[in-house]
Description:
Helix content: under 10%
Radius of gyration: 12 Å
Structural class: mainly beta
Number of helices: 0
Order of helices and strands: EEEEEEEEE
Strand order of the largest sheet: 1-2-3-4-7-6
Largest sheet: 6 strands, antiparallel
Low-confidence stretches: none
Distance between the termini: 13 Å
Amino acid sequence: MSMVFNADGKLTFVGGFKKFHPATWKYDAKTQKLQIKISNYDKSDNECGDYNEEYSCLLYNSKTDSFESKWTEKTKSLSFLGWNFLRK
Length: 88
């Protein structure tokens, strides 16, 4: 399974999680925050371990109704709902 971050802000899940479509993403280079909004999700906290610069995790933020994570040049993977997505 993979996530495709399209240049227009659309996020596409390939190989699964299609129930979350439509989905969008945006990235703030200044704060290095990746933000993902998905559809059809029971809004609850996503279980993650401690933040690590190389292995990041998307956590649900009820204030923005989106999943957010720190994303830097050193980030190698992103954990989301129990799945680890490796950076290409």
